[in-house]
Amino acid sequence: MHTTTRILAVVAGLSTASAFAQADLSEAFLPMFQPLPAQAASPDNEITEAKVNLGRQLYYENRISKGEKLSCNSCHMLDKYGQDNLPFSPGHEGKLGGRSSPSTYNAAIHIAQFWDGREPTVEAQAKGPVLNPVEMGMPSADFVVKVLKSMPGYVEGFKAAFPGEADPITYDNFGKAVGAFERGLLTPGKWDAFLKGNKDALSAEEKKGFATFAKTGCVTCHNGAGVGGMMYQKLGLVKPWPELKDNGRSDVTKNDGEKFFFKVPSLRNITETAPYLHDGSVKTLDEMVKKMAEYQLGKQLSDEETASIITFLKALKGEIPTDYVKAPKLPESGPNTPKA
Question: What is the pLDDT of residues 185-196, one digit of tens each?
Answer without folding.
Answer: 999 999 999 999
